[in-house]
Amino acid sequence: MTINSMQAQIQLALKDLPSSEQKIGEYILAHPKEVTKMTIHQLAKEAEASSAAVVRFCRSLGVTGFPDLKARLFAEIGHSAVVGYFDIEPNEGVSSVIDKTLSNTVQTLHDTVGQLKIEVIEEAVEMLNEADVLYIYGVGASFLIAEDIAQKWLRLGKKAFAISDRHVLAVAMATQSEKALFWGISYSGETKDVLDLMKTAKELSIPTMSLSRLGNSKICELADVSLFTARAPEAHIRSAATSSRFAQLLVVDIVFFTYSSSQYDFVVNQLEKTKKAVKFL
What is the CATH number of the domain that holds 237? Predict the structure, then answer.
């Protein structure tokens, strides 16, 4: 698998796709070079699927269409740099652990950047601009991301709340819902507690944003704006959680820096104020 590998993303998404799309993915993985020369109708015929299924497959992978998918496949075929996802083996040496951890992180970051959409980042920044109050929620490792988001925008003058108790967060949303935004963090996109709070936010007419792995999920169906990271493999000792955490932080940083750039002078002034405030502590 190569950097920003389309084939890697297909492999990771296969088990979550409908059977018609699975057939397309399996055919592409078996014949990547041939697929780069096919039309959408030829691929559908060879994979024993329909052209509509190919379109849905591309959408599930987060690419703009079949030409985009072919271009990415063509770019990675014959790539000399071997970077991929690796799990840790028993009694592995420190040097090997370092190499594998770096490879997993680099692969995830490149795959995440490869599927980011500029217009979605811009929509997210606009929602953050309009909100005075931010409610951010995640479970487990995703709560660390929620805390990072709250800390970043708190320094810029937003009322930002990352509260681990979902009941307390629901109370806060109910009493301060004007010009608010709910940002749900769930790598799988299926975490029940996050979905419940997303539904609560929608009942309160609070705009919603999500951050999850690429693909169709319940959180994307609920969110007004959906941000994605690349998928990472489910490893035996949870290297996926490590990789997904880095990917989530990358997306948050990109949104934060885009937001900061859009009102540069104000942000610099706010950061200077907060720097002075903590200098005496």
Answer: 3.40.50.10490
Task: Kindly report, residue by residue over 143-179, the tens digit of the pLDDT.
Answer: 999 999 999 999 998 999 999 999 999 999 999 888 9
Q: Hey, which residues does 225 pair with through a beta bridge? A: 209
Which among 16, 42, 76 is the end of a domain?
Answer: 76
pTM (two decimals): 0.72
Residue 223's CB: how many other CB atoms inside 10 A? 23
One domain, residues 71 and 123 = no
Calpha distance 249→260 (Å, rounded): 16
- For residue range 231-269, what is the model confidence (pLDDT) as tens digits? 766 555 555 567 788 899 999 999 999 999 998 998 888
CA distance 71 to 11: 18
* Whether residue 181 sits in one domain with residue 63: no
Tokens found for residue 98: 């370092």
